[in-house]
Amino acid sequence: MRLWSWLGFALGAVFMVLPLVGMFEFSxxxxxxxxxxxxxxxxxxxxxxxxxxxxxxxxxxxxxxxGVLLVVPTAYWVRLRLSRLRPVMEFVTLLPLVIPPIVIAxxxxxxxxTSSFLPLTGSARGTDFLLVMGYVTLSLPYMYRAxxxxxxxxxxxxxxxxxxxxxxxxxTILSRVILPNLWPAVLSGAFLSxxxxxxxxxxxxxxxRPAFGPYMVWVGGNRAYEPAALAVxxxxxxWACMGLLTLTGRLAAHHRAAxx
Amino acid sequence: MSFLTLENLKKxxxxxxxxxxxxxxxxxxxxxxxxGPSGCGxxxxxxxxxxxxxxxxxxxxxxxxxxTALPPARRQIGMVFQAxxxxxxxTAAGNxxxxxxxxxxxxxxxxxxxxxxxALIGLPDLGDRYPFxxxxxxxxxxxxxxxxxxxxxxxxxxxxxxxxxxxxxxSLRAEIRELQRTLGITTIFVTHDQEExxxxxxxxxxxxxxxxxxxxxxxxxxxxxANAFVAGFVGQLNRLPARVVDAxxxxxxxxxxxxxxxxxxxxxxxVTLAARPEAFRPAPAGLPVEVExxxxxxxxxxxxxxxxxxxxxxxxxxxxxxxPAPRMGERLTLAVDPSAWIVEAA
Lengths: 260, 346
Hints:
- The complex is a heterodimer of chains A (260) and B (346).
- Chain A is an all-alpha fold and 260 residues long.
- Chain A is built from 12 helices and no strands.
- Chain A starts with a helix and ends with a helix.
- In chain B, α2 runs parallel beside α4.
- Chain B has 346 residues and is of the alpha+beta class.
- Chain B is 24% helix and 37% strand.
- The mean pLDDT of chain B is 89.
């Protein structure tokens, strides 16, 4: 039984790892007859890579901030006062997983085009705003679940009442009591959001924004070795996010254990 | 002149009314306990005072100010919770200083007040510890200091000792009472533990089904219970069926044994006589009983016995070398002070 388990694991690993190894190996073959980092040098030195990657990082950070500002107070309030709405919230926050991004992007283009009542696509900043909103929607299932799980470990009602009895306003309660105790959960949601946003293609391409996702597609269609190097870099970023996610989870578990 | 006044408070959750016309006047610096079984409405009354529950009707006044419609943050009330409710992200000092920080007290003044409060609760060196690094008793002391630091007008204690073990509970209740006397702060204490209520309070409100069944000093509550519920809830009570022989002279018959009572009796028929375990004492003549079991309670022995008619009776004896414990099956006769009997309609 144990042998079969290991065999299954090995087959899975080969299925997952072999393409990555092949891609990495291919990315090193830019120079004829020897391995080199030329493809990486070319990608990292490309001003367009730097610009699109920086743009996507900024958009990811803004998305995370907007997501936290939207999700933390909402999840907190639902847990504190509107517990009957929890199934509804679960359903609403899962919708982005079933509605394709292309539908949301076309919806945005129809509702906020230059001849609409709110012509956001008429300016770069307006379109950036739409892109961030799209990404907030896209990361909602992950951010909401992470925050809601974090809230479950706190006695939200009693902490709120203790703060109120000490004269705290709602803003103070959220910023000084709830949010600091939710950091591990918020960070989990943030890393997942970052990993999703950094390589996202559909929203960025349809809204015509200079993001990293469309750049990867463009490089894939026009270069030979650079796309493989770029894919390895993108994997690296995603895995770094996953690693941080795991680390945050372990730190949170350690912190909870210490509290007990 | 009362400092905290509750006037005809009512509270309903949907169709269920949990507090009925509850009124109470608490003097400045007074320590009043709300005592009652689970679901009697004591915590709801406390939460209405704190502002966490709205009132369905009635008024709450603190020092003459009507606070009924004020949000909790503006009532200047300190509250200590059963589950401590310390902020896990803040140290003990951070917790104690939270209310002062919210109120915009300058840093230096805040630090001095925090140090003063930590010294007052006997934890001057533990200010930099996080809640998870403190024991239950220490956490509850910090919670008390946190509630008192902003100098609230009223202190509310919601079963603050329930989560602690027995020994710490006894020592902490003495500390809380001492602190309350020192600061002279008006305090409402909610508990279902009669020993806590009787030992700590200036007055006790025994609550039953959302109403005040009796308000009085601990001695009044224990010695002169206003009704059968109070008598049964506070302390242990023997309830025995008896027959009125002569209401005029106070003569009744209990398990075939004649007794003369000091209480007023109905003209005739059956009554229920009630008396506490400590009202009985072995004597050469009196009520005959047969011993069933003896519980050892340290300073006391609690004897479970049976009357000739089969009714169960519990009485206490001091644990003394002069009075050896009765044996199982031993027949005794018990004397009772005639004024110790409470007469209830059967």
